[in-house]
Structure formats: C-alpha cells, structure tokens
Amino acid sequence: LRNKYLGLIAEAADEAALEELRVAALGKKGEISLQMRELGKMTPEERKEAGPKLNALKDEVNAALAAKKAALADAALDERLKAEWLDVTLPGRPRRQGTIHPVSQVWEEVTAIFADMGFAVAEGPQVESDWYNFDSLNIPSHHPARAEMDTFYMHRAEGDERPPHVLRTHTSPVQIRHMETYGAPCRVIAPGRVYRADYDQTHTPMFHQVEGLALGRDISMANLKWVLESFFSAYFGTDVKTRFRASHFPFTEPSAEVDIQCSFEGGTVKVGEGDDWLEVLGSGMVHPHVLRSGGIDPDEWQGFAFGMGIDRIAMLKYGIPDLRAFFDSDLRWLRHYGFGA
Ligand code: PHE
What we know:
eight-stranded mixed beta sheet; two-stranded antiparallel sheet; 10 strands; magnesium ion binding; phenylalanine-tRNA ligase activity; metal-binding; ATP-binding
C-alpha cells in the first residue's frame, strides 16, 4: 500500500490527480481509512502492532501529498515566469501634467498684484438676497438697471411673498457685506463668479468679476486712476494708459467707464500701444446711499469702487477671441493656448 501510493503521488501530473489520490487513500472510503476502521475488530495485541504502522503510513502519505502539491505549484510558477516577461528596456509612456485653468491663473495674478498695493481679498455668496444685489446698492425695485441685468431669480415657494434671492449679477454686493463687517477705512478686492442670462461670443451666463473698494477720509478719483494704471501695467507687463469716460452707475457718483490703450491693427488686440481704446471696467466714487447701506457715515468716509471682468482681461492677455471656450473644458483648446494637460 505504501509503495503503491508513494509511487502514484510521485507521478501525479497536476493538483486534480493529487486530490483523487488523497480521496482514494485517505478519504472516507479510502483504502487506508478502511484499514484503520479494521483496528476496532482486532485483539489488543494485534492493534498494538498494526495501529502505529497505519498511523505512520497515513502521515507519510499526507506528507507526500503536501510535498508534491508544493512541487507542482513551484513548477507552475517557473512556467509562468518563463512565459511572461517584462521588457524593462522599453521607453516609459509619456504622462500629461495638469495645469491651472487660464481664468484661475488670471484670478490669482490679479489678486497678487492688488495684494502688492495693500488690497485684501473679500468674499460673498453667489446666491444673494435681492437687498444686497440691488437695493443696498441704490437700485430700487422699479429701477431700469434691474431689467437690464438679465437676472437669474431663485424660485420661492407658493404664497411666499418675500422678494426672491438671485444669482448675484455682479460682485458689488460684496462691498456692502465688507462695509457691514469691517467698516472703514478699507482696501479690498472681491474676485468671484457672477451670473447673467446672456450668451454669445463675449457673454456667458456665468463669468468672473473682480470688485475693488477703497475707503478713507480723503480717497479720490486720482487714487483710483493710479491704482488702475498700476494694475494694468503690472498685469500686461508694459505701461498702459487709461481713459476715464463719464458714465452712470446707481452705486457710484460720479461714475466712469475706464478704457485701456490698445491697437487693433492686424485683427489682434495689442494692449499698451496704439491710439485705440478698449472698455474694461466700470468705476466711480461710492455713492453716499451705498455707504449708508453698509453702515458707514458718508460725512466722514469716502472712497472709490470698481468692477472689472476677469475673463475679459484674460482674453486680452492671451489673445482668445471667444469667451465661451473658457468654459467648454476642451483639453485640445486648453493645450492650444498652452494651458491644458
Ligand atoms: N457692478 C458694475 C457692473 O457689474 C461694475 C461697477 C462696480 C461699477 C463698481 C462701478 C463701481 O457692471
């Protein structure tokens, strides 16, 4: 029996064959198991003789099975190692690296330039109350400026008569929130997302503005002009002249739209040279009503405010003709302009 099984185990070709042999020898009805059952019928003397032998046989067969199983596994692994191999001399696959979106880059750059001039960053919510977005800024409900803004209104429950919240149409409400919390004097910018229902080559329903607010006892339009010219010169990396045109905003008095010097020759816009002008922002001296909305005494404090399109100046800097492309998330486009991964 011993030779029979040890021989068969040595010759087994695979694990399945081994398992068959185990059942034949040591399974419930296996040859060795049956013999062990016979032990009960023997006399004590016979059992003393046969018992240890059978146990030893059982152990030996079990050990042979385990050894053969390990040997088979080793052989299988050897086989695989020979068949599968890795060519470590092949060049690696190139990996693309992610980069910062142009609008985010400009946002950060704008923040850094104003920080150099002592401006801190203020923030406000994108879902704004009617009061912060309009009334506090001297735009009462019947004012035409409301209609012009293409405002997105939030839904109110049936029977709720309160004025609806809006997606802020500009960053100007952050002026009021900042005044309420920190008072005067102050020097802050408020970059952020704003929303208007408008869509064409130069308008998207979501876009970015940066608001500026400086309050003090004698801050004037001259300070505004210096700050803006310093900003544009730093941002475009060349001296940039500005032109102030008298305008009207409900929240500033007087108000000015500001153009930067540029040339349109050859179909591309070049900033800082030529005799053309391009409008880039609205500004003015903060209206006394607006100061009062923010809890500030207009007899003691005055200052300027401005609001500028971040996407707009990003388009100018990188020569991008269509604003909508900023928000298409098309990696080919981003790569073409040197941004994409
Ligand atoms: N809020 C104005 C706009 O969105 C810009 C502006 C800001 C003008 C501050 C004057 C002062 O068009």
